[in-house]
Amino acid sequence: MTRSAFLNLVRSGLWNIPAAHTLFRGMNAADWEEVFHFAHTQALLAITFDGIDGLPPEVRPPRPLYLQWATLVARIEQANKHLNSALPELFQSYREAGLHPVLLKGQANAAHYLKPLHHQCGDIDIYIGKEGQATANRLLLHRGAQPEGEASDKHTSYSLHGIHIENHRILLRMNNPVADRYFRRLVKEWYPQQVETKEIGGCPVSLPPPTFNILYVFMHAFLHFLNSGIGLRQVCDWARLMATRQDNIDKTLLEQHLRKLGLTRAAKAFGYIAVHHLGLPEHTLPFSIKGMEHAGEILLDDIFATGNFGWYDTRVSSRPQGYWAGKWHTFRKATKRCMKLRYFALGEAVWYPLMMIINKIRICWRN
Questions:
Q1: Which residue, 149, 178, 142, is CA-closest to 165?
Q2: How far is residue 20 from each of residues 4, 12, 24, 101, 361, measured CA to CA in Å?
Q3: Residue 238: is its pLDDT beyond 60?
Q4: CA atoms of 245 and 216, how far apart (whole Å)
Q5: Residues 101, 163, 106, 140: what is their CA dihedral angle, to the nearest 10 degrees?
Q6: What residues does 157 pair with on adjacent strands?
Q7: Measured at the alpha carbon of residue 326, what is the angle toward residues 323 and 327, in degrees to the nearest 5?
Q8: Can you list the positions of beta strands (E) in 155-284?
Q9: What are the Cα distances from residue 159, in Å, to 80, 162, 190, 206?
Q10: Alpha carbons 302 and 358: distance in angstroms, whole number
Q11: How far is 298 from 241, CA to CA, in rounded Å?
C-alpha cells in the first residue's frame, strides 16, 4: 500500500495532477514514515511533497513529519538556488577563455520540471571536451577551487564555494567498445555547433540538442543502474525531458541510436516504468513497450532496493577499508550485479569487468 501511495504522490508532483485521496485514508504514522523513507532514498522529497500539498488536511502525514518534510524541501530549494547562482560566473569565465561549456544532467534536467527548484540536486556537470579540460581546471584552481574525489578518466572534480563541480572531457564511456565508438561519433556530430541555449538561474547556458540529450540522460542512468543502482528520480528526469521536448525529438533517429548502442531493451524497461508508474503518456515514447511488464517490474523492484545511485542497498556488504581491498570489493560487487542484470543489455554487462580494469589503467597512466 505504501509503495502505491508513494508512486501516486510522485505522479502528482511530476505533472501537477491531484493525488488519489482514497489511497491515503487509513494510513497511520508508520505508513507515512515508510512513504517518507521512499521519498528520501529515491531522491524525490520535494516532488512527493508537492503531491502531499494537494491532499486534504485530514489525510496528510502527521504534523511532525509534515514539518520535517517541509524543512527538507526548503533546503533543496536553497541548494538549487546556490548551484544556479554559480552558473553565470562559470559559464562566463569558460567562454572568455575560448571554451564551449555545455551543462549536463542535474541542473539541466531540473529546468524541465514544473518546479525546477524541487529537483533534488547534487553538483554541476559541465562538458568542455578533451581539449578544453586543462584550461577549465586552471580556471577553477585560479578561483580557489580545491580538487575533490577520486581520479576519473572522464572528468575532474573540484569544490568551489561549497559546490561540487565536474569538468567532463568525456560525456560517458560505454563498456562495449563498438557501442562506445558509435556514441563518441554522435557527440562529435553536435558539439559544439549544435548546442541548445536555455536560461537557467538568469544565465544563458548551453545544453545538448534534445534528441541527443534524451539519449544521454537515459544512458547515464542506465549505466549507473548496471553498475550499482539508481533512484526513481533518474527515471523521472528522463520522463520529464521526454514529455517537455517531444515536439523537438527525432523519434526515428532516437530509436536507431538505441538499437545500434544495444540499449533498446533497457530503454523499453525504463519506458514501461515511466508510462505505467510515473504517468508519462505512452505516445511520447519512440517505441512500443508491449511485453515489457516483467522486465519493467524487475527494474522497479531493483530501484526500490538500491535507492539513489545504490547508496541504500542493504543486500551488499560494506566496502572494506584499504585502497586495494576497496577496489576489489567494488569490482566483485559490480561484476556480480552486471551478470545478474545482463538481460537488459548483454553487451554492456559482458564487457563491464574488463573495462573496469582498463579504465583503472587509464587513470593511473594519466596521473
A1: 149
A2: 10, 9, 8, 43, 53
A3: yes
A4: 14
A5: 10
A6: 166
A7: 85
A8: 155-160, 163-168, 196-200, 203-207
A9: 16, 6, 29, 22
A10: 28
A11: 23
Q: Model-level pTM?
A: 0.92
* φ and ψ at residue 62, rounded to 5 degrees: -55, 150
Q: How far apart are CA 354 and CA 358, in angstroms?
A: 6
CA distance 352 to 350: 6
List beta partners, residue 206. Answer: 197
DSSP 87-119: HHHHHHHHHHTT---EEEHHHHHHTTSSSGGGS
Cell, residue 106 = 542535474
3-state secondary structure of 159: strand
Q: Which residues lie below 8 Å from residue 237, measured CB to CB, with a gap of 6+?
A: 105, 109, 112, 119, 217, 221
Cell 541510436 appears where? 257
Joined grid coordinates for residue 2: 505504501
Distances (CA, A) of 137 to 130, 166, 184, 190: 12, 9, 22, 23
Q: What are phi and psi of 126, to 5 degrees?
A: -130, 130
What phi and psi values does residue 80 have, to the nearest 5 degrees? -65, -40
Q: How far is CA 335 from CA 213, 233, 332, 342, in A?
A: 28, 24, 5, 10
pLDDT in tens, 345-362: 988 888 887 777 776 666
Predicted confidence (pLDDT) per residue in 162-190, tens digit: 999 999 999 999 999 999 999 999 999 99
CA distance 238 to 280: 10
Q: How many Cα neighbours within 13 Å face the side chain of 109?
A: 28
Four-CA torsion 89, 93, 95, 96, nearest 10 degrees: 130
